[in-house]
Write a structure and sequence with these properties.
With 362 residues, this protein is an alpha+beta fold. It is built from eleven helices and 16 strands. 28% of the residues are buried.
């Protein structure tokens, strides 16, 4: 009677790195039962199942790290599983595999969901870099195989969607390009974080000389002016007013790490004026509240490009002493990333679209 092979047993590949094309050997007693290798640690990495189907352990680790990263970012296993399109038990199992591999706890429960432990946070930062490397490698291979990249992940500040990004996308569409674009419309600080994390390939954002990033390279596009704006017929339109009058108005403002918020705060601090807290704090561009500005006496700071778009309808810059500010904008990418042919074409078209955006408005 033939000897039955036990279930749930996997056998090691003998040491040569020739892969599955070479001769496979199995050492007696080197079995993988219930997820634990019985053989020497030097053989960790690859396995061949009893059905002779190769399983690449490294690929599984990469996938588990990506799932773990999503759990950290969303601070919820349930939300992360939904975003990944998998079940929560599958996500929990992946995280347990990582914890068993490293021998440490990576996540801990919080009243609102989950949070990384100190070691989990360190692993998350490494996983982000690995995720970016995997994406760049895929793009590189696709470029070599087909001569062009299949997709480009682009981040852009809201003020330049209409005047810069839209014309560029229109050019690609008009020429029948097979490239697909994934866009993220956010404020500059968020875009640059996404870019460093490997979630974007390029970002059109504000240049901040006080907080340069050694991980990013950039091309300066030019400058953009921003103004304190109010509705037509606002009490401060058409009459003299002081900075104290400005400070007394309700304001719609973004977070403190955004340049235009810093400008407004510095305006009043330098004048020795205590301004009232903003009526609306938003993590988006204040331009999304344009309708609120048209209906009330609220003020905000808006870029020329936003004023020239549909957001600026019925709004006008206030005259002096309300100042205007100038910001430098650039196109950013990761220094360590593969700079594809598509990225090069995109960069040249963005530069041209930025230079021509004033002409397109007239």
């Amino acid at each position: 009677m033939a000897r039955m092979r036990p279930r749930n047993v996997r056998y090691r590949i003998m040491g040569s790195p020739r892969g599955f094309g070479g001769r496979l050997g199995v050492r007696s007693g080197e079995k993988y039962r219930k997820g634990v290798w019985a053989g020497p640690a030097s053989f960790r990495g690859f396995a061949i199942t009893s059905r002779n189907r190769p399983e690449y352990g490294v690929c599984r680790v990469i996938k588990d790290l990506a799932w773990f990263g999503k759990a950290v970012e969303m601070a919820s296993l349930h939300a992360a599983a939904d975003a990944l399109g998998i079940s929560q038990p599958a996500l929990s199992k992946a995280i347990r595999r990582l914890e068993a591999e490293f021998g440490v706890r990576l996540l801990e429960r919080t009243p609102r969901g989950v949070a990384p432990t100190p070691i989990g946070e360190a692993l998350y930062q490494r996983a982000r870099l690995l995720g970016g490397w995997v994406h760049d490698t895929r793009v590189l291979v696709h470029d070599l195989k087909t001569g062009q990249s299949g997709e480009l992940r682009v981040g852009v500040v809201p003020a330049l969607v209409e005047s810069v990004l839209t014309p560029v996308l229109g050019e690609f569409l008009a020429e029948g390009s097979a490239i697909r674009f994934h866009t993220s419309v956010q404020l500059s600080a968020v875009l640059l974080q996404q870019l460093e994390a490997g979630a974007l390939d390029v970002a059109i954002a504000a240049v901040n000389p006080e907080r340069p990033s050694s991980a990013l390279a950039s091309t300066v596009l030019g400058t953009q002016s921003s103004h304190v704006v109010a509705r037509l017929g606002h009490p401060l339109q058409g009459r003299r007013f002081t900075l104290g009058d400005l400070a007394a108005q309700p304001w719609v403002l973004p977070p403190a790490n955004i340049s235009l918020r810093a400008w407004v705060d510095a305006l009043f601090v330098n004048a020795g004026i205590a301004s009232s807290p903003a009526f609306v704090h938003t993590d988006a561009t204040p331009a999304v509240f344009a309708e609120l500005l048209r209906r009330t006496d609220a003020l905000t700071v808006m870029a020329n490009d936003s004023l020239a778009s549909s957001h600026g309808k019925g709004l006008r810059p206030l005259p002096l002493p309300a100042p205007h500010w100038t910001l430098q904008l650039g196109l950013f990418w990761r220094r360590s990333a593969y700079f594809s042919a598509t990225m090069s074409v995109f960069r040249e078209r963005v530069i041209a679209a930025f230079a021509n955006r004033g002409q397109a408005r007239h």
